[in-house]
Amino acid sequence: MERQLEKWQELTLNADDEWPSIGPQLFRFVKDGIPRELRPKIWMHYSGASRKKLENQGLYDLLVKQAEDAGKSNEYAAVIERDLCRTFPDNIYFADHSSTKIHMLRRVLLAFSMHSPEIGYCQSFNFLAGLLILLLDSEEDAFWMMYTVVHDYFPEGMFDTKMVGANIEQTVLMMLVYEKLPGVWAKIASRKCFWECEQENNLPPITLVTNHWFMTLFINILPIETVLCVWDCFFVGGGFKVLYQAALTIIKMNEESIWEAEDSVDAFQILQNSPKKIIDGRHFIEVIFSSPSISDDITMKDINRRRRQFLQRKKE
Fold first, then answer.
1. What range(s) does the Rab-GAP TBC domain occupy (predicted)?
2. Which of 3, 26, 107, 316 is deepest in the core (most CB within 10 A)?
């Protein structure tokens, strides 16, 4: 670990002046893991959150003040308050409702709801903001990182009331399962054709599980150290594609168990429970990015093409 830290320190020694560009060399470093001490700075830079913070100095404090002034008239205030005590209740920093971290979480979520009223607040935001508060250097960093994730990483419409964006993501994922893992698809879809399910707007129940994976960025799905390994790749070069790659890898890892499952309900349980067992994050990343792998040919260009295809079909 010390040698890993030294390599990263050498790579980012002059980062304030000129950061290494995203490319194969940097991504090799990322796949090997970003040292805990350097994660905040590296995530903030490569995600674009640092730039947003710099270009909007003072805005976060203003949003917090606006949220305080709005009080209960903010339509999201009550649900945010309700979810505070549900955020990592076993974590010492969040266990006490009057703790400093809880106050920070409240301010970040309320500030976001003021800044992005078209989205406001969605369940899972509390866990995203909470984990960022635990990991980053400041409350304001957590806000800008959350803002960047929601607006720059997640596709448009992911958090609208009709969940159109979320449904399209799951349609794309299920199409990839249908193409790459036909035996798994046959089990989870009760042997229906993918296009029949898509046409009837009746995707397999397993999408309730996989949608939760995407919406939470695998928080409370994978063990925390594995989540951080996935996030390293997500924030530094991989982007939303990494969620597809991780999801397909998990499904592939459980392929034989799903084949042997009695029905789609058993398959549902397998995929709901199995990610908790992926405790070796580095190995999981190796599996995702090995060649050949279930996901090594996935590109954002292809994902975007499929998104457009299904969005158009929904409009017809």
1. 33-238
2. 107
Q: Please state, in angstroms and rounded to a whole number, the distance separating the CA atoms of residues 295 and 18.
A: 32
SS3 60: helix
Residue 205 Cα distances to 8, 92, 253, 265, 273, angstroms: 43, 35, 19, 8, 15
Q: What is the mean pLDDT of residues 100-122?
A: 95
CATH code: domain of residue 89 = 1.10.8.270
Evaluate whether 280 touches 141 at the Cβ level (below 8 Å). Answer: no
Q: Is 74 helix (H, G, I), strand (E, B) or coil?
A: coil
Q: Is the pLDDT of residue 12 over 70?
A: no
d(CA 286, CA 45): 24
pTM attached to this predicted model: 0.93
Please tell me the predicted confidence (pLDDT) of residue 1: 61
Burial class (CB in 10 A: 0-12, 13-18, 19+), 179: exposed
Name which of 238, 233, 237, 239 is nearest 21 in CA terms.
237
pLDDT for 213 = 97
Looking at every residue in the chain, the average pLDDT score rounds to 92
Domain match, 174 and 308 both: yes
